[in-house]
């Protein structure tokens, strides 16, 4: 049981906009920055979004992040087939004193 | 460039221990935490704990308390994660990741080390 809650799956057709949610609590998302990771099968995760909405260099601006209260969201616009991957949210938890992850969302591009 | 290179795959019997190494380069080792994350086959990312390489202070997820030890060798800029009393459920890929700060999170990851308990 993950501390952060994500939908296990999401899907969309090429060109569509897809949103993945991440729900937490006041001790984690409610008081700390949220990061999003993208993971392809057999490879290590990669930072997609940090500090709620910032993109590392090289990440397309089709990817965006936001936060409201104790929830965060990752939006992917102009969906492409190469976006098919696993997506994980993560943040620091002040009560646990360590990082916590969401259970992950597998994105399928139909 | 910043790199984290992990040790090779391991096969262990139930009840044994495994020690995974994470050799860092390209930055000052003592400035940033090293985190450990594991992923069981077909499952999500599971956070194990963190270590401050400068002080050696650690913080473990409750699930692994008493069974995991994270250490470092500052002379070789290498971090280690030892997991004891292995069970079949410990089979998976173990990653080390640099913790840049609370805003950037875990910004650079190792390639992963497969541990099979059988």
Please characterize this protein's 3D structure.
The complex is a heterodimer of chains A (110) and B (118). Chain A is an all-beta fold. Chain A has strands at residues 9-12, 18-23, 34-39, 46-49, 63-68, 71-76, 86-93, 98-101, 105-109. In chain A, strand 3 and strand 4 (46-49) form a beta hairpin. Chain A is globular. By secondary structure, chain B is mainly β. In chain B, a hairpin with a 5-residue loop joins strand 4 (33-39) and strand 5 (45-51). Chains A and B meet through strand 3, strand 7 and strand 8 of A and strand 5, strand 9 and strand 10 of B.
* Helix residue percentage of chain A: under 10%
Shape of chain B: globular
The oligomeric status of these chains comes to heterodimer
Unreliable parts of chain A: none
Low-confidence stretches of chain B are: none
Number of helices of chain A: 0
Gist of the model:
The complex is a heterodimer of chains A (110) and B (118). Chain A is mainly β. Chain A is 0% helix and 45% strand.
Q: Can you tag this structure with a few keywords?
A:
heterodimer; A: 110 residues; mainly beta; six-stranded mixed β-sheet; three-stranded antiparallel β-sheet; globular; B: 118 residues; seven-stranded mixed β-sheet; four-stranded antiparallel β-sheet; 11 strands; 0% helix
């Amino acid at each position: 049981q993950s501390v952060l809650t994500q939908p296990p799956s999401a899907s969309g057709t090429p060109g569509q906009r897809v949103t993945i949610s991440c729900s937490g609590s006041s001790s984690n998302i409610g008081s700390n920055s949220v990061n999003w990771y993208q993971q392809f099968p057999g490879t290590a995760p990669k930072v997609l979004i940090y500090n709620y909405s910032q993109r590392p260099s090289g990440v397309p601006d089709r990817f965006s992040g936001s936060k409201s209260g104790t929830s965060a969201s990752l939006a992917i616009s102009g969906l492409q087939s190469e976006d098919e991957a696993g997506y994980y949210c993560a943040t620091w938890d002040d009560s646990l004193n360590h990082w916590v992850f969401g259970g992950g969302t597998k994105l399928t591009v139909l | 460039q910043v790199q984290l290179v992990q040790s090779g795959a391991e096969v262990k019997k139930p009840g044994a221990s495994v020690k995974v190494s994470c050799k860092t380069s390209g930055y000052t080792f003592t400035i940033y935490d090293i985190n450990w994350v594991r992923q069981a086959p077909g499952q999500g990312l599971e956070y194990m704990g963190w270590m401050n390489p400068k002080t050696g202070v650690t913080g473990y997820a409750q699930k692994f308390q008493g069974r995991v030890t994270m250490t470092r060798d500052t002379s070789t800029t290498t971090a280690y994660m030892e997991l004891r009393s292995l069970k079949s459920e410990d089979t998976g890929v173990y990653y080390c990741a640099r913790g840049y700060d609370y805003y950037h999170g875990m910004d650079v990851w190792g390639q992963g080390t497969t541990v099979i308990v059988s």
